[in-house]
Input
Amino acid sequence: MIRLAIPVLGLIILAGLPMFVSEYELGLMIGMATYVALASAWALFSGHTHYISLATVAFYGTGAYTVAVLNESLPYPAVILCAGLIGAAMALLVGLSTLRLSGIYFVIFTFGLAELVRQLITWYEVTITGTLGRYIFLDLTAQDIYWQMLALCAIAIGLTAWINRTRLGLALRAIGDDEIVAAHSGIHLARTKLIAFTISATLITLVGAVASPRWVYVEPLIVFNPTVSFLTVIMALLGGANRLWGPLVGAIPLFLLFEWLSVNFPDTYPIFLGLMFIGVVFVLPNGVLAGLDDLRAWLGRRGK
Amino acid sequence: MTLIDVQKASRSFGGLKAVDEISFAMDSGTVMGLLGPNGSGKTTLLNLISGFLAPSSGRIVFNGKNLAGARVDKIARAGVARTFQLVRILPSLTLLENVMLPAVFGHRSHWGKEADRVARQALEKTGLADRAEATAGDLNYIDQKRLELARALAGEPELLLLDEWLAGLNPTELQQGIRLIGSLAGSGITIIMVEHIMEAVRALCPRCAVMNAGRLIADGETARVLSDKAVIAAYLGDADDA
Output
């Protein structure tokens, strides 16, 4: 009971925070919520399976672009629904063609996918519609966006917690350890991965859709920025991608750090991003939370 | 009743015929030893049966259905379980979770309390019950082998494929291992065991098949097969070569 009560209480407090903060601080909170949602949604698939997807921005950007294209012709809830459906359809298509790939090939494919989608949309806009940039005019306040993003965080973490307790969660963990053993135990590999990948990618698409009105002006180069994919991976890995709260623990400090770096070192901050990536992989391959467990175990042994 | 009927199963890798038109059938509840020198195709044959490799040609009829070329997980759910020559466990999962997998996804597909009961029973049989919550990666080699067998059993298979499961055990463990497999055979599971330890083959397998260079060179009562000239030649080389 208490395991549920604390997160719910936290959510209520977070939902009430916009009443007490400045416009700038609310902007930061939206940014944090965006990356917590992205990292948690990413980890829903990649955390247990260890399939490192760099396609985050392909879905995120697709969500944003869907809003940009449809925001003037459909009511907002219908636009969000469309974004979710498009994300799910794209995930199924991508999943069916890639999830048989293993390891490094999957990583490369997902990275290429983001570039492919960006080029496709650019080509479509330039040659078919004749416009490249699009404007998003929606009657949404920063608070509305914050609440929606907070809801997506809750959904991503809640879904992960639920999946962890189901057959799907057990199957995903087995796949992450050894696919051959998983298959010999009766697990349908392709189907299991496809379900998790689609849930994860749909959530990521929705994050892009909800975040997009903040930009007002949208074009492929802005919304398909590969840094989003890399940041998401580093954040999830830093906190611990296979832990329920790991992505959140990684996303908040890293978002604030990168925000500070990009303000103070606008030209050189991608270097820090690269260094962080290497640092996380070398120092804390299993994330901060696992590192803390190790530390606690070590202190416990020393105490005896 | 015939449980498995392998009909002219073949598998080539490039020009090499690793398994060359092998045929044999087994009744439910019987045990067969599968012998042969290294590289004779024993593991490949197990891989064809478990679905890890698809046969290039031939049929593998299990419980009346041809499973040749079916996906691994489908064959596992049909009731075939195996261990691997190089032990494979899920290192980051607990022992209980390791054996829970086939209990949940395997032949009988349980969930909740029933899956837990079946999984713990499998750990019990292999002497690992008291370490159910330990992490599998922390086990030593012998216990990993035990865990692998427990995992195979937790799927409540009708056919169990053991790929040199007894290899690497010390004399005491070997005796325990032989007793364990003997008790499984007694419980009605059909077993094909690839094995080099003759003591185990004689104790456990009333029937033996011998492979050499992808072909079945002998199949029959163990004592007779082991004294067969062709079999001795395959293992020790021809008298002329010596």
In short: The interface with chain B takes residues 167, 170-171, 173-174, 176-178, 180-189 of chain A (CB under 8 Å). The mean pLDDT of chain A is 90.
